[in-house]
Request: fold
Amino acid sequence: MKYLTILLTLILAVACSSNNTGSRKLVWSDEFDKPGLPDESKWSYDTDGNATGWGNNEWQFYTIKKSENAFVKDGMLHIRAVRESISDKQYSSARLVTKGKGDWLYGRIEVRAKLPGARGIWPAIWMLPTDWAYGGWPKSGEIDIMEHVGFMPDSVFASVHTESYNHVIGTQRTKGYHLRSAHSRFHVYALEWDVETIKAYVDNDLYLTFKKEAGDSKVWPFDKKFHLLLNVAVGGNWGAVQGVDPDAFPQEMIVDYVRIYQ
Reply:
């Protein structure tokens, strides 16, 4: 009976892990099976906002091809924030993007990751428009699959930003999810996006739904290709609400895989 129970549990776990992929086809993935720097055929480094703090008054300097900040080891991607003086910042980190190497219109995006945990840390798994067809932010949209701030260690958040719904005017569509083990265990952070709906999940548990209310791009700019971003920020307007603990670094987000289904 004991072994039958274990077998049934395993079967159920497999079913639950795959039930949202349905008949979709895997169209892009990174299993991080090659040690060293991230695969250049799939990832680039974004550093364009270093001088301005990315519009969020962030404290880190994002580097390019610096193995202390982004590297693959033992089948995992590590994005690491380090306390060090670099340029005019006191922290370094990395912001990886798939733009031009992975751009999608609709599908299911899955990222299995374990998050850093320290006061002042701000990791994110999110998406931006590739061509900005409707104009600059937030007109062309933003999808935050997962955001976490260290001063709220038991919560992760998913958000949608558009011209009509964004945090600058206090109308963003955001949901929090209670997750005590975000720092100690891997979880699958997923997005399902189609012509009518955006849905965010943690381990197949749906917690944010954003529906297309109208065809107006002010409400729904999500009919264009988007790309994926993975980054670990330090400080900033949200991350540093309760300050930054300088003694807690380095801090890293560890990613097991990224998979895109359509």
Q: What stands out?
A: The domain at 25-261 is CATH 2.60.120.200 (Jelly Rolls). The first strand starts at residue 26 and ends at 30. The chain has one domain: 25-261. Helices lie at 2-18, 236-239.
